Amino acid sequence: MAKDKKLVEEITSMEEDFTKWYTDVVKKAELMDYSSVKGCMIFKPNGYAIWENIQRLLDERFKETGVQNVYLPMFIPESLLQKEKDHVEGFAPEVAWVTHGGMEKLQERLCVRPTSETLFCDLYSNIVQSYRDLPKLYNQWCSVVRWEKTTRPFLRSSEFLWQEGHTAHATEEEAEERTIRMLNVYADFCEQVLAIPMVKGKKTDKEKFAGAKSTYTIEALMHDGKALQSGTSHNFGDGFAKAFGIQYTDKENKLQYVHQTSWGVSTRLIGALIMVHGDDSGLCLPPLVAPVQVTVIPIQQAKDGVLDKANEIVDSLKAEKIRTNIDDSDKSPGWKFSEAEMRGVPLRVEIGPKDIEAGNCVIVRRDTREKTICPISDVASKVKELMGIMQSDMLAKAKAHLESHISDAHNYEEFKDAVENKPGFIRAMWCGDEECELKIKEDTTATSRCMPFEQESIDDKCVCCGKPAKKLVFWGKAY
RNA sequence: CGGGGUGUGGCUCAGUUUGGCUAGAGCACCUGGUUUGGGACCAGGGGGUCGCAGGUUCGAAUCCUGUCACCCCGACCA
To answer: Considering all CA atoms of chain A, what is the largest pairwise distance in Å, rounded to the nearest integer?
Structure first.
């Protein structure tokens, strides 16, 4: 069977309408539901379980770098939010306010956190006294609220789940090092666990975080050629420290300001998983994050011994810590295959009378639909092997897609042509003026995604204005 | 916030133009039976004051006024 044959009518094909495909997959894979609250979504078990896996695996990596988890309040007093000018201006348009407690009007309104820089700064100003108190490496897993005008499942909603790391350091160098280190933790996690290759780089001033000295980003390329900002890491310098009075006494007994960082990824990563790996049959999850790694599907399960054998297989897989379930509902096998595929289960094991007679079972990969016949006694080791191969094949495929969707533009005509006709990232030189960024966005809807770490000069003039070029920039349409 | 669209069983929708008997279909659900290697079939069954509030009328899902909600496309943002 052709691997991209469309098997499920309810999913619109990607070619036909990518946006609709995305919504269909999200619904058919039962990842989320819309709620009665405007712009807010419900994570269903299958979607939340992906987040739990991301959380668990990322959290381990954070802790390896010395980070500790904390939890701060979800409310921020208005006066605290006001302390850093750029920061308030950046977030004010999208914060939700609490004005009443019960029947009584509050003396001071509280904002529902859109991000927690101000609370962390307030905390650090109290607990940091000496250089011996540094660094502080805190992180929290929580939800934040941003009153968005438009919403899309996992990509943008009024409330979303994320983690925000906030660190305070004695020196500028140490803060910069931490900023880059966490960006690399993200990029590595995305590649190794989510099988999503990232373009790493620095944001232009226009695109950087409100209040940051510099913002670094990991940008992924979706199947339709649009970019998705998947994680950011900010170096705040001492800007927040000065606004919040976070000072410590150094070894020479001199008062110094701390240097801070913050970094975050959100449930948007689930959106990336869907749009990087999914196909017309639904979701396709890399084994390492899949809530269910193997579904066992009995064929002719009413026949003697079939269910018993299927359950034996389940047990042997579970014994090896492979996340396994069985579909022993009385649906037809075809139904079960489609269902498992929509949910993105990496491998399925088929077991029927014919197999049992031969002492075999059939293992089918979700990404290629390739079938492997395997002795029942070897199923666990074969499953492990296939999951490993699948994990790296999926990354290789996504890498090939990324690399084949990067084009160079040497002048404005080429640039405009690329935006129109070559979905993906466009590499082009830039003079450093925000005006050119604005003009490019106005003319083409493409934005600067990042200035990659590996800089090279592909031309000496700015692609937009023709003035001397300063930076190589990755441009693209973005979510 | 601008432009467009939609509200009718759990879901997708028909019916609204031109008001008229008991508001329909497919899917899903429940019961029983036959099935099962790529979304099986038969029989029976339950479930809707047509988004909400007024109004017109002998009579409103359908016409009028108001209102609310959500979706999509832009601008703003993770």
So the answer is: 82
Nearest nucleotide (CA of A115 to C1'): B78
CB A337, CB A284: distance < 8 Å: no
The reported pTM is 0.94
A195 with A54, same domain? Answer: yes
Sign of the CA dihedral A145, A147, A153, A156? negative
**Number of structural domains in chain A:** 3
What is the structure's pLDDT at A9? 64
pLDDT digits (tens, 9 = 90+) for A381-392: 999 999 999 999
Same domain as A126, residue A244: yes
How far from A153 is each of A9, A187, A282, CA to CA, in Å? Answer: 21, 23, 15
Shared-domain flag, residues A147 and A35: yes
Is A238's pLDDT higher than 60?
A: yes
Please check whether residue A271 lies inside any domain of the structure: yes
Residue A345, domain extent:
294-388
Q: How far is the CA of A333 from the C1' of B39 (A)?
A: 9
Residues A219 and A319 in one domain: no
- A382 shares its domain with A410: no
Average pLDDT in the A226-240 region? Answer: 95
| Pairing between β-strand A96-101 and β-strand A360-365 as defined by DSSP bridges | unpaired
Q: What average pLDDT score do residues A257-277 get?
A: 96
Q: How far is the CA of A330 from the C1' of B32 (A)?
A: 15
Nearest protein residue, CA measured to C1' of B77: A148
Boundary residue ending a domain (A361, A388, A415): A388
- Amino acid sitting at position A24: D
pLDDT, tens digit, for every residue of A129-160? Answer: 999 999 999 999 999 998 877 778 898 888 89
- Pair A317, A379: CB distance under 8 Å: yes
Instruction: Specify the CATH number for the domain of residue A363.
Output: 3.40.50.800
